[in-house]
Amino acid sequence: MEPRINLMTNKLGAKVSKRIYNVNLAIQEASLSKSLMELVELRVSQINGCGWCVDVHTKEAAGAGVSALRINLVAAWRESTVFTEAERAALALAEEGTRLADAHQGVSDETWDQVRKHYDADQTAALVSLVAMINAANRLGVITRMQGGSYDPGMFAGLSN
């Protein structure tokens, strides 16, 4: 399966990609740990089947100090003992916010209450934004058939502006 288009070499695609990257820089200003954000992005990317994004967030999670055990178990976080209550709340939000068509009411009140129990308003806004943005990035990757396996951590560091 070959990629359909390289959005990074297309003028408009590169412009949109830079904007998405800059939104993610704003999200990173929240007081959420890099490891939590990578776990959330990894889980959403797994659900959406974006090979490129799974590659990116697996490697970035490892670079943020997330153990191989936790990276490997994020797909089965509900059946694992290696995630905190706060991480479980964030992962539930990620799943419910991603599977909107499957969850008749979107994010449940129970999940929302758990998120608010563990995260302040800015952190919650960051989590909601993170889920929205990784879903957008996943759609770009899946639609254009971006392949996983070639990401080098930090390769987009100069992309801002």
Overview in brief:
This protein is an all-alpha fold.
Account of the protein in words:
By secondary structure, the chain is mainly α. The protein has a domain at 33-144: AhpD-like (Up-down Bundle). Helices cover 61% and strands 0% of the residues. Helix 5 crosses helix 7 (121-144). The longest helix has 24 residues, at 121-144.
What are the key terms here?
61% helix; single chain; mainly alpha; Alkyl hydroperoxide reductase AhpD; AhpD_core; CMD-like
Main sheet properties: none
The CATH topology name of one domain reads AhpD-like
Helix-strand sequence: HHHHHHH
CATH class of one domain: Mainly Alpha
The helix count comes to: 7
Low-confidence stretches are none
Report Rg: 15 Å
State the shape. Answer: globular
Quick check: average pLDDT? 92
Which second-level CATH architecture of one domain applies? Up-down Bundle
What is the CATH superfamily label of one domain? AhpD-like
In percent, how much strand structure appears in the residues? under 5%
How many beta strands in the DSSP annotation?
Answer: 0
**End-to-end gap:** 32 Å
Percent range of helical residues:
55-70%
Structural class: mainly alpha
Protein name: Alkyl hydroperoxide reductase AhpD
Organism: Streptomyces diastaticus subsp. diastaticus
InterPro entries: AhpD-like (IPR029032), AhpD_core (IPR004675), CMD-like (IPR003779)
Pfam families: CMD
